[in-house]
Amino acid sequence: MLHLFHLELILDKLMNAAPEVSDINMTVGHPIQVESGGELLPVYIEPEIRTLTAYQTETLALSLLRGDRHLIGTLLDTGACDLSFNLENKARFRVNIFSQQGRFSIVMRKLENYIRSVKDLGLPDIFVKMAGEKNGIILVTGATGTGKTTSLAAILDEINTNQAVHVVTLEDPVEFVHPPKKSTFNQRELGMDFRSFSEGLRSALRQAPKVILVGEMRDRETVEMALSAAETGHLVFSTLHTVDAGTTVNRIVGLFDHEEEKLIRVRLSDTLRWVVSQRLLPKVGGGRVAALEIMGSTLLIKDIITNGEDQDRSFYNSIASLSSLGWQTFDQHILDLYKKKIINEDVALTYSSKKSVMSRGIDTVKAELGESQYEVKDLVLEKDDYYLDDHGGGVDPKLQPQPREFQQQNHHQQQGVHGAVPKSRMGGVKLHSCQGFPRRRLEKRRGEKKRGKVAVKVAGKSRGKRSRKRGSGGFENDTGMRFLSEETQHPSQRQHPLRKALHLRLPELQTKEHGHD
User: Which band of pLDDT confidence, cut at 50, 70 and 90, is reported for residue 84?
Assistant: First the structure.
């Protein structure tokens, strides 16, 4: 068996293998790995171990168990066990040893040697208010490894600093050891000091605590005991593996039978004080930052817990509308992190609860900062269609006015006339004004069957007559609207071809004017 001294040397090397190591992973068929910044990195130690064998992981597991019969029996009976391991004066670990495919694997989570305060963690001031509660249930939720235990330890440290009370913790295993300050702490470990959370919680009620910490509410019996403890005047802290406040309430209610649902909803609405949900997001430049959703208790929240959510009332909308109380949704906090440039846009969208809400929020932030909201940019005109002449405008010679006979032959191609753009490039843009004339809208009269008819709307009236050609300098219709050819226009009157394209659909109008029945 590997000697404990050798195990401590190995762990010491692993902790120094990368910056900010949070986990150690030992799995058969892989090298020893450490997690840094959310990624697993292989570590090769002396003597060199390229891939772990089943014998090596079993030897490491037995060294960590240190001959504890209860832990060994739990591992053999259930296939997994939890314990704590202390690397003297350097680090503490929460260890899980489990069986997979008949072989053992080990995952070790590094714990802090000291307890960071609410201020040190940068948590909102509302956490100090949570520590001042006298009874009820406060839940911290989130996925594994999102910092739930760290946040709870900061709240308990606030109580330890300011209140002379008795605190009993039921943990699996004990992660943060609270030093004696004002409060008296009794920290009990699952498997060593009690057999199950429900039994430990039942006995804790006879130990005269003011505050009880339950490591995790895993089953119905533990939840029921926590509700009973809160109803009898105790302040109960616990954790759940849920993603937000709404799913936390639904998870608790779902542990009970349908016949008990109404009663459980009433009890939960009376005892639930706060729900804090956490997610860890990768920061710009490396590292991670916590995003928090915070929900308290008001008459509205109690009513939603009692009667359930509906289309008009939801936990999400209620939290968002009560930000003045210190509450916040994940989307509100994530958007604030994005605004401060702590995270990027992709991370904000990935970790948001409602991507449509987050997308609108990001657009608003970009508008406030004067940034572009769209990625389409650097649009230019095609060189084969346009060029700039001495007066700032021009068109390709192919698009210059052509003989009438040629225009009639190419009627269906809609070649440009008088500096216009081909119809294929115009799309379906409707034009409402033209150079130097009152605002008008030219469109084909509804129901008109004859070709060449043009309806002109002026001040709500419309009339249609065939336009007549007038001189070589251009053509004019009966409304007095005169269209000049490029040759007869003064250079200062010529428009840039793009402006001309957006204000005159001349290819279509010219075809109608010169069409024959």
Answer: confident
- Phi, psi dihedral angles at 264 (to 5 degrees): -65, -40
Burial of 245 (0-12, 13-18, 19+ CB in 10 A): buried
Model confidence, pTM: 0.68
Q: How far apart are CA 386 and CA 403, in angstroms?
A: 21
DSSP result, 1-27: ---HHHHHHHHHHHHTSSTTEEEEEE-
C-alpha–C-alpha distance, residues 490 and 435, integer Å: 13
H or E segment to which residue 168 belongs? strand 166-171
Instruction: Report the C-alpha gap between 37 and 18 in whole angstroms.
Output: 10
E strands present in 51-161: 80-87, 91-100, 103-111, 136-142
Cβ–Cβ under 8 Å, residues 346 and 300: no
Give the count of beta carbons closer than 10 Å to the beta carbon of residue 372.
9
446-478 tens-digit pLDDT = 444 444 444 444 444 444 444 444 444 444 444
Does residue 124 have a cis bond before it (omega within 30 degrees)?
no
Q: Are 312 and 251 in contact, with CB atoms under 8 Å apart? A: no
pLDDT band for position 493 (50/70/90)? low
Q: 3-state class of 270 per DSSP?
A: helix
Give the pLDDT of residue 58.
Answer: 93
The beta strands (E) that lie in 112-149 are given as 136-142
Distance, CA of 84 to CA of 93 (rounded, Å): 6
Report the distance separating Cα 406 and Cα 398, nearest Å.
13
DSSP conformational letter for 114: S
Between β-strands 272-282 and 288-295, what pairing exists: parallel, antiparallel or unpaired? Answer: antiparallel
Per DSSP, 73 falls in state: H
What residues have CB less than 8 Å from 174, skipping those under 6 apart? 84, 187, 188, 189
